[in-house]
Amino acid sequence: MPQVTITVDATDFEQLWTTCMAWASAGWDTGEQEGQFEPVQSDAVEYGWKHAYWMGGNWASVVLARSFLAAVGHDFQVVADTADDPGYRGFVILSDCQDRALADRA
Asked: pTM of the prediction?
């Protein structure tokens, strides 16, 4: 299968996500949000990640963002947000990358 090489830097990474916020200890696994997230290409949603990046419904953005995170040495998990609010519905990348400034320095 042919492969394409694309260069993504921290500025590009910032343009890929729509919302970024803390994940660990934020209560995403309890209360109103319980059951809101579903694993994608894994068995279970992990709630210990430091940050969450909402990517919307565009899988190409997910591919680019996870490639960037892997290239700068950060682990991640992709989940689906099933919220009723269309502003949050779609893919979310959970990561040990705490913010875009850390990703830039990695």
From this structure: 0.85
The rounded distance, in Å, linking the Cα atoms of 27 and 19 is: 17
pLDDT digits (tens, 9 = 90+) for 5-61: 999 998 899 999 988 888 987 888 877 777 889 999 999 999 999 999 999 999 999
How many C-beta atoms lie closer than 10 Å to residue 3's C-beta? Answer: 4
| 80 neighbors 91 (Cβ within 8 angstroms) | yes
Q: Where are the domains of the chain?
A: 10-105
Q: 24-47: buried (b, 16+ CB within 10 Å) or exposed (e) per residue?
A: eeeebeeeeeeebbeeeeeeebbe
Angle at 96 between CA 90 and CA 99, to 5 degrees: 80
Block residue for tokens 């921290």 = 10
